[in-house]
Amino acid sequence: MNYCFIILNLLILSIHLSFADSQLINSDYQQFNSTSNSNVAVYWGQHSAAYSTDVYNNSIDTRSLSFYCSQQSIDIIILSFISNFPGTNYNPKIKLSSFEYSNTNDIRTCQQKFNKKILLSLGGEAGTYGFKDENESEEFGDILWKINKNKISSYQLQNKYPRPFGNVSIDGFDFDIENGQSTGYASLANSLRKNFKTSKKKYYLSAAPECPYPDNVLQELIEKTELDFIFIQFYNNIQNCNADTKKFNWDTWLEYAKTISPNKDVKLFLGLPASLDSASNGYINDYSLLYKVITDSQASEHFGGVMLWEASDGFMNHDMNKEPYINVVKSILDENFRMKRKLWAMQTEFIMDIRTINQPPVPNSALFKSRNIYNYITFYQNCLLVIFMYLFFCIGFSLL
Ligand SMILES: *[C@@H]1O[C@H](CO)[C@@H](O)[C@H](O)[C@H]1NC(C)=O
Ligand SMILES: *[C@@H]1O[C@H](CO)[C@@H](O)[C@H](O)[C@H]1NC(C)=O
Ligand SMILES: *[C@@H]1O[C@H](CO)[C@@H](O)[C@H](O)[C@H]1NC(C)=O
Ligand SMILES: *[C@@H]1O[C@H](CO)[C@@H](O)[C@H](O)[C@H]1NC(C)=O
After folding, report:
1. Mutation test of ligand 4: which of 107, 151, 153, 167 has the most ligand atoms closer than 8 Å to its C-beta?
2. 69-104 pLDDT, tens per residue?
3. According to its record, what are the GO cellular component terms (predicted)?
4. Which ligand is nearest to the CA of 56?
């Protein structure tokens, strides 16, 4: 009987441990791997799917940044945009949609709990930005760095769009320059790089050129500076280079990466629209084509993953299995992700046959639900195992 008493204590201890174990699964977020070829990067901040609802009639507008960060299908989130720079007295402004503006304070959670990289994008379609010369942009590089390190409060992005990050610092900067002015971006990038070197933390630089090569705005930047990621926009260029056309020019970019890029390890991302409405053309609705385009590019050196414009669209848009488009993309890229989502893996084994339909939005909490169910299963499995061992030992000892 004494033995049984000891074992009973062990049993209680084990239940505690198995509970702790099941908790761990919740924080099963992979470390970011910049050299991987299966990363998914999404732009976030313009809330393209505003006013949409999901299949449970939940508003997409209520989703915080941490909702997107909690998704295992996403690795990099690019906040968009700093749309006004250098600004009066070097006071740049960030312009996020009003929905998204209110919840950027999740950045710390994104970085620490979910292991995501958060970049901040300069530029965008609308805004007032550009430099008069290289001196101005170089100086702006120092200012941006100081803002990011939050060292000078007077440079807080102010008025309607104050710096919304509290005391966190982001993981790098992205250039999405769409206003035709190319002055100064190479010197800005070099200025940022110089500042990055003063920190122990790893920072990243990226650019989002459109697919025609050479890019008419960012060419100097991409030829003369070390960029970590190039998010090539294979959309809005149906006559030249979109991924779903015969003129798809991935190989041109690959050649750039191999022979021109100053960063020999530069990663190229296949940039695609996340829904039919995300761009005027380039959205790939057909899974077999999507599968082919992604896996063909993934086979090449320098492939870093897929970039999607943009996050809310990529979750509003889902297929008939209620799987968000972002998850479909990640599952094509990453076998581990596919295996983790076993049920869905069974459905997508026949990925070439699945027809997709554009229809109402994604199940809001389905992803969380499936993870919680998994936790319970693990918990009860462990309990059962412990009880079985308890019975086994007790019976064994009473026989002695
Ligand atoms: C990162 O990805 C590369 C390429 O897939 C792989 O070789 C490497 O082992 C990965 N690193 C880690 C820490 O997982
Ligand atoms: C969805 O919610 C809106 C507003 O709450 C309501 O008017 C509408 O009837 C709901 N639709 C469905 C299908 O439940
Ligand atoms: C840029 O800065 C350098 C050194 O600070 C200065 O000599 C040069 O005149 C400046 N150029 C312009 C266009 O302001
Ligand atoms: C940053 O802000 C958070 C929340 O406001 C606070 O808990 C934390 O202590 C701050 N960290 C530093 C280094 O100031």
Report:
1. 167
2. 999 999 999 999 989 899 888 888 888 776 665 555
3. extracellular region
4. 2
